Amino acid sequence: MTPTGPDRHDDDVVRLLRAADPLRNWTLPPMLRTPEDARRATRWRLPRLRPNVHRPRGPVRSRRPQALAGGSIIVAVLLWLGGGAVIMPNARPGDPGPSGLTSPTAAGPSASARPGIRLVAYTPAELPREDIDEDAAGMLRQLMSDITGPEAPPGRKVTYVRLQEWGLNLTDPHPPKLLVAQDRQVWWNAERYAYTRTTTLPGQKPDRVRADYTGKLPAGFTFTGYHDIPDGSSDSGITVLIPDPSEDPRNLAGQLAASHPGGTPRQLIRAVGALYRQHHLGNAERAAVLDVLAAAGLRYWGKVTDRKGRPGIAVGTESTVKGMGPDHKPVTYTVRDMLVIDTSSGNLLAYEETALAPLGPVDDETGSAPGKVIHYVLYLENEKVSRIPGLR
C-alpha cells in the first residue's frame, strides 16, 4: 500500500524536517508519576537507531505509538493543596485518555478525599443520573443476553473509530474559560497501516451536559493527519495494545489486565475504555467485555444520557488514588470512573472521570463544588470499512 497524495496540511519543508528527525523511531518511556512507575521505568531500554531506509513518497508517517494508544494528548491536572500546586501528568500509552489521576490504591464506595484539595478548572457539568447505587453484576449479565446488532460484512477489513475527548489542560497558568476538545478519527488494518485525523474543536462552554460537534463536523475545520506505514520491522506501523480481542471472557480478562496492570476495578474500566478506542467489537466480543465487567465488583448507577444525547446505563467504581506532591510527599484523593453502556448493543458510549473533592478554580470565580468532571471520552462512530483514506 502506498500513499496516493500528500496530506493537505504537510508541506514539503515539514515533511523533510520530519524525515530527518533522528528520534522518529524511538519509543519514549512513560512520564514518572509514582515510586512504582519509577521502579518500572528501569526496565525500559531505548532501541538502537536504524539507518534511514527507503520510504514510500507521500504523507509523513508517525512512528510514535499515539494514534490508538490514548496518550496523544499529554494533559496535566493541577490541584491546589494547602497553597501548593500539584502537577500530575499522565501519558501512559493505552490509557483511555489524559486525566492525571493515577495509581489507585483502594476501591470502595465514596472513599474520602483529603480536605482542602481544590481543582483549577472550568469543567462540564456532571451527567444527571438516577439515585441508584447497587451491584452492577446482575444488570451487566442481563445485557449480555440481550445484545443484538448486525455483524460487520466479511469483506471489510479496515477498523474505523471516531471519538471526542476532553481533559484538563492546565499547564497554562491562565487557562481559557472554554473547554477545548479534540475529535479523533482513526482507520487501521491488521497489517498495521493506518491513517489518523485529529481536529481541535472550537471552545465549548463549561458547566454544560451536552457536548458540541458530536455529529458530522462542519466544513472548513482545520485538521492534522498522518499515515503509519510499516516497513517490515517489528516496531513499525501503528501500535495496538490488544491486536486480537478474545471472545472468551477469561482470555479477554487476561488481555485487559496485561494492557493495564494493577488488578483494580479502576484499571479494568480504563482498559475497556482503551479497547474501544481501538476496535470495532462483534457481538460475542462485546458480550465477553460485559462478562468481565460483571465479575469486577462494579456499581450500577442507573439510567443516564451521555453528552451526545444517547441513552444508556452507568456503571463504575470510586477509588482512593495517590499521587506525588511538589515536595515529593503523597497526596490522596478520590476519583469516580464511569462507563456509559448502550443497553441494546452493549457498546460503550462514553467514559468519564470525576474528582470527588471540594473543587473550584483558584480565583474562586465559580466557587467550590463536591465534584468536578476532569475527563470524558465520547465514542461517536465504530465500524468496519473497506479502505484507509490516502492508501491503495
From TrEMBL:
Organism: Catellatospora aurea
Taxonomic placement: Bacteria, Bacillati, Actinomycetota, Actinomycetes, Micromonosporales
Domain of life: Bacteria
Bias (Low complexity): 102-112
Transmembrane segments: 67-88
Region feature (Disordered): 91-112
Keywords linked to the UniProt accession: Membrane, Transmembrane, Transmembrane helix
Record protein name field: CU044_5270 family protein
